[in-house]
């Protein structure tokens, strides 16, 4: 297995109390596989990714327990200089806001070339040539001329392609893409997702795709992990999730997607708001919003039950997963 996250716990100390952002998250991704991590804002998706990458702000963040195994090594036990060598060459991250992630006073060629001057010891001339190759690889037109331009001179979709080029520069074995299609129109979204899928196949990279949009991952992901209040509440192969979700939260997310065959009908929305992470409800954290909630849901935290009878391995953190699966 390329990456294994085991029982990870991360918290933030705030004026209002301790916010438990990640509560025992476990998932894995192998080479050439795409894992989509879904959930509303505040569910812990990005905090988990930042912890994997080693870029979590500490403090206020604090890793209280867990393991992150990359090629069998626990990243949480490495020294900072060792973690730095893993970043870029072993794993890389594509951030959701390309404009704020890129340096506005450096040309894109300088920023792409830095990967090669720092990690490969190349001259600036050779690094610029590699930057042009990368821009060609992610299909940026007139790369030789545009390599001298600044981030603000590119469209949102082109900036995201530059971020992808930066991520694949050193041919890492794992890429984490955090909301890579945010604020892009649907046509550009499809182009970006197709590009990521193509690069994953070409380089046989593992890909973790973080998003709140189920529609974005349908044709790209192999498996899906659904997060709520810092926990994995369902995990399954992508087609099984769409066919028959085994958790009420996943079902609510699916029913919230606009459909052509429901024209004129009011769009479904999950009632209520995600919980305050300093005051997570007792029992199942989703029970205040769940239409299937019963007394046991208010008192007992459900484990990630194995969904028996499934064609592939899947799990659901719901006491009534059978009823949800058949409903």
How far from one another are the termini? Answer: 34 Å
Output mean pLDDT.
Answer: 91
Q: Helical segment tally?
A: 13
Whole-number radius of gyration? 21 Å
The main β sheet shows up as:
8 strands, mixed
What structural category characterises the helix and strand content? alpha/beta
Count of DSSP strands: 12
**Which regions are unreliable across 5 or more consecutive residues at pLDDT < 50?**
none
Question: What is shown here, in short?
Answer:
By secondary structure, the chain is α/β, with parallel strands linked by helices.
Can you describe this structure?
This protein is an alpha/beta fold. The protein contains 13 helices and twelve strands. Strands 6-7-8-3-9-10-12-11 form an eight-stranded mixed β-sheet, sandwiched between helices. A hairpin with a 2-residue loop joins strand 9 and strand 10. Helix 5 (124-137) packs across helix 7 (156-168) and helix 7 runs parallel beside helix 8. The two termini are 34 Å apart. The model has no long low-confidence stretch (mean pLDDT 91).
